[in-house]
Amino acid sequence: MRKSDKLTYTIFFIISAIVLTFISLPLIRLFFFLTPQNASVLKSRSVLMSFWNSLSLSFITAVISAVFGVPLAFLMSKRSFGKFERFVETIVDVPLAVPHTVAGIALLFIFGRRGILGAIAYNSFDFKITGTRVAIVLAMLFVSLSYTVDSAREGFKSVDRSLEKAATVLGAPLHSIFGTIYLPLSRSSILSGFMLTWARAISEFGAVVILAYYPMTAPVKIYDAFTQYSLSTSGAIAAYLLLMCMSIFLTLRFAIGEKR
Q: The CATH number of the domain where 96 resides is what?
């Protein structure tokens, strides 16, 4: 290897070490809150319920994202929207760029009691969307759906189109081609998008706290503990949430990796 190449690798490794340290150091510090004394926060029913709300509702969000996002991703990968393709791509990716408090306010105008759909739900069915688990899922879905669509779209794009052409020549209908060619060959991308959506939904705070402060999710509970109690209390809750999430996602990541 040439000296210039070694120097380039050395510089890149130094930069990588800085990035990895920047990411890992705050997380490592948070783990110092995992002590027997701080384990008492897990005895609180409100803390456990907030954990359950975050994990279960974010999982539901990821499932909904897969059901509705994968078909959209397939159409986008085939450029089925024609001259509106860029417009559709922009709409899908806008939630990634919008501040999540802005997203929460925007959703409130739709699903709030006086919102377009919220008013219909309240006046017709006496159901107030805000302040419910439905509102939490809606907020999570808005900010995280893009991850499923973008990941699945890239997976569909990577499929060899000659396989589709061969299946079409043999008379296979589109739904069969989608189910037997595109879905299996894009499985890892779809699963990665599912995990990213789930992870992003778990961590959502801004949009959720505007649509539904109660029932609390874990991020909202951590904020509540920070404002009502102390940094150590909120740090302990955050540490146990981090441990729980890392355990789940590392397990899923290795499981997906072994199936590839």
A: 1.10.3720.10
Q: By three-state DSSP, how is residue 78 classified?
A: coil
* pLDDT of 257: 64
- Residue 230 is predicted with a pLDDT of 85
Number of separate domains in the chain:
1
Q: Give the per-residue pLDDT at 220.
A: 96
What distances in angstroms separate CA 67 from CA 71, 112, 134, 157, 248, one per listed residue? Answer: 7, 25, 17, 19, 22
pLDDT at 256: 65
Residue 45 lies in a domain: no
Place of tokens 């791509």: 89
Owning domain of residue 150? 57-215
The residue ranges of the chain whose pLDDT is under 50 are: none
